[in-house]
Design brief:
Elements: E1 2-3, H1 14-24, H2 36-55, E2 63-66, H3 69-83, E3 90-94, H4 99-110, E4 114-118, H5 128-134, E5 139-143, H6 157-166, E6 170-174, E7 193-197, E8 208-212, H7 227-230, H8 238-253, H9 255-276, E9 280-282, E10 293-298, H10 303-312, E11 315-316, E12 318-319, H11 332-336, H12 341-344, E13 347-351, H13 358-377, H14 380-387
Parallel strand pairs: 1-11, 3-4, 3-5, 5-6, 6-7
Antiparallel strand pairs: 2-8, 7-8, 9-10, 10-13, 12-13
Helix pairs in contact: 1-8, 2-8, 3-4, 9-13, 10-13
This protein binds pyridoxal-5'-phosphate.
Residues 68-70, 73, 98, 100, 145, 149, 174, 176-177, 197, 200, 208 line the site of pyridoxal-5'-phosphate (PLP).
């Protein structure tokens, strides 16, 4: 079995699991209680908070624990908007956001907010001039995805933040795919709010964080106890928090080494596929992209059939259509970069991880051209094309 779907989730690192185990067994105290069994958990949580903050050059009281990327995105979008609605009701985002951001924006539109969805170019980059032009007197929030989960394109985050700050606008970024792959300094990059999720960097599922700059207002998303500076009630996910901090430490200790390894595998895949498989194209920017992301569209191919054939050979990857979510529409990201429907449908996303090997990449490269050929031999569209 070869796992090539690390953008969907990653395998828990054994060292992360080990760091979590005491908090799933003997250290079960509720961190809000005052006896020793509880207070050691309080200390562990605050150490994790400090450790996470220092990785992003943030302060510990700017890190709020959540249940993951989706919650952090919902909280940032809906509750920053609500906190600033007296100042204005206009929000700017991009057309290639994750659904956690896009659907939060759709919700805000039902609450009287106006949302501008910036287009992207063929590589998936937003245009900074268009961003400037779309700013209005009542713009309160700009939310742009750091690195796209489908095509891997990395946006000019520092410049976007600079533009936001010149206009006194809050800048949020969904950095769920970037965290663990890209060095992030929230000060230098002018980031006011940032979403992250542990299961995308070899941590456990169901735990994430929102970084929120100290002077930025937000209303609570979850009402309850005084946890998370009274902004997010609920007994802390102690093992999750400890695991996320450990996973982040590991990711950033080995960042350069891992990225060199992944970039090498990524480039080998891209170059080899583009060279050996006719009628295909790379989606996303060639270089301004995540070190682990390959996204390729094959003409005359149905993405779902390709995935099934790959699955039968033991390769687990992802496609560019949203069929799994019960819709036949191709991905909004692939349409936003200008792909026609039929080409978007034939897309394959391979996202590598630290547990992949170059042997796995080689065996994939051996199998893929055969599989593509087999599918095209069955395709009436390809037949038509050949006759022309
Ligand atoms: C996975 C992902 C999310 C959602 O995170 P969860 O922790 O799974 O809720 C949000 N944004 C991006 C870009 C993602 O890749």
């Amino acid at each position: 079995m070869v796992y090539f779907d690390n953008a969907a989730t990653t395998k828990l690192d054994k060292n992360v699991l080990e760091s979590m185990l005491p908090y799933l067994t003997d250290s079960y105290g509720n961190p809000s209680s005052i006896y020793k069994l509880a207070q050691e958990n309080r200390i562990a949580i605050e150490n994790a908070r400090s450790s996470i903050a220092s990785i992003f050059n943030a302060k510990p009281n700017e890190i709020y624990f959540t249940s993951g990327g989706t919650e952090s995105d919902n909280w940032a979008l809906k509750c920053i908007a609500q906190a600033y609605q007296k100042k204005g009701k206009h929000i700017i985002t991009s057309s290639i956001e994750h659904h956690a951001v896009l659907h939060s924006c759709k919700y805000l539109e039902t609450q009287g907010f106006r949302v501008t969805y910036l287009p992207v170019d063929k590589d998936g980059l937003i245009d900074l001039e268009k961003l400037k032009e779309s700013i209005c007197d009542d713009t309160i929030l700009i939310s742009i995805i750091f690195a796209n989960n489908e095509i891997g394109t990395i946006q000019p985050i520092e410049e976007i933040g600079e533009i936001a700050h010149e206009h006194n606008i809050i800048f949020h970024t969904d950095a769920v795919q970037a965290v663990g792959s890209v060095a992030i300094d929230v000060e230098k990059m002018n980031i006011d709010a940032m979403s992250l999720s542990a299961h995308k960097f070899y941590g456990p599922k169901g735990i994430g964080a929102l970084y929120l700059r100290k002077n930025v207002k937000i209303i609570p998303f979850m009402d309850g106890g005084a946890q998370e500076f009274s902004k997010r009630g609920g007994t802390e996910n102690v093992p999750g928090i400890i695991g996320m901090a450990k996973a982040l430490e590991i990711a950033y200790e080995n960042l350069d080494e891992n990225n060199i390894f992944l970039t090498k595998l990524r480039d080998k895949l891209v170059e080899n596929i583009l060279k050996n498989v006719p009628h295909c194209r790379l989606n996303g920017h060639r270089y301004k992209r995540l070190p682990n992301n390959v996204n390729i569209s094959f003409e005359f191919i149905e993405g779902e059939s390709l995935l099934l054939l790959l699955d039968s050979k033991g390769f687990f990857a992802s496609s560019g259509s949203a069929c799994t979510s019960g819709s036949l529409d191709p991905s909004h990201v692939l349409l936003a970069i200008g792909l026609p429907h039929e080409i978007a449908h034939g897309s394959l996303r391979i996202t590598l991880g630290k547990y992949n090997t170059s042997k796995e990449v080689d065996s994939f490269l051996t199998e893929l051209p055969e599989i593509i050929k087999r599918l095209r031999d069955m395709s009436p569209l390809y037949d038509e094309y050949l006759k022309k």
